[in-house]
Design a protein that fits this description.
With 167 residues, this protein is an alpha+beta fold. It contains five helices and four strands.
């Protein structure tokens, strides 16, 4: 028996459907990885810029607390024999509610100290703008002094005049 091998031709094997699927999945994975790397690259460049903008933005200052005092009328010192009066309204600018509560608790003492300090003033000293500024500084120092021995001083940010009449 003779067989001929010449008649048999080698037929190239066609790639099976499994090889095609593996090739398509491999290309999809590479494309997804490249897209993810591109997104990471561009987002990482912008994140420090946004963080530096947030860090550069100053925090807003705390809202001040204004504490109005009742108006006070006091006799002033006089050299000319006439009676001079000062009617003054004050508002204190405070940092927190704890300070306001301390002032409220000791208000009769605070008002007494203010009235005694004002009654020692001369009308000519209070007339110029510098005299009013000096008075505000003096009153701030006076109000900040502790009313109880051994107590911590009270912190007042500013003394504001809401009424100022010298007669």
């Amino acid at each position: 028996m003779a067989t001929t091998t010449a008649n048999q031709q080698a037929v190239p094997a066609s790639p099976g459907p499994l090889k095609r699927i593996i090739l398509i999945v491999l290309i999809a994975i590479i494309a997804a990885g490249a897209a993810g790397a591109g997104v990471w690259f561009f987002m990482s460049k912008r994140a420090p810029v946004a963080a530096s903008r947030e860090a550069a933005a100053p925090t807003p200052p705390a809202v001040p607390l204004f504490f109005p005092l009742e108006s006070m009328t006091v006799n002033l010192q006089s050299d000319d024999g006439q009676q001079h009066f000062l009617r003054i309204g004050l508002t204190l600018k405070l940092g927190d509610a704890r300070t306001q509560q301390e002032l409220t608790d000791h208000m009769p003492e605070v008002r007494s100290h203010i009235l005694l300090a004002l009654s020692n003033k001369h009308p000519d000293d209070l007339a110029p703008l510098d005299g009013k500024r000096a008075l505000a500084t003096e009153l701030k120092t006076l109000i900040e002094q502790p009313t109880d021995k051994g107590a911590a001083p009270i912190h007042v940010d500013d003394v504001l005049f809401t009424e100022f009449v010298v007669q």
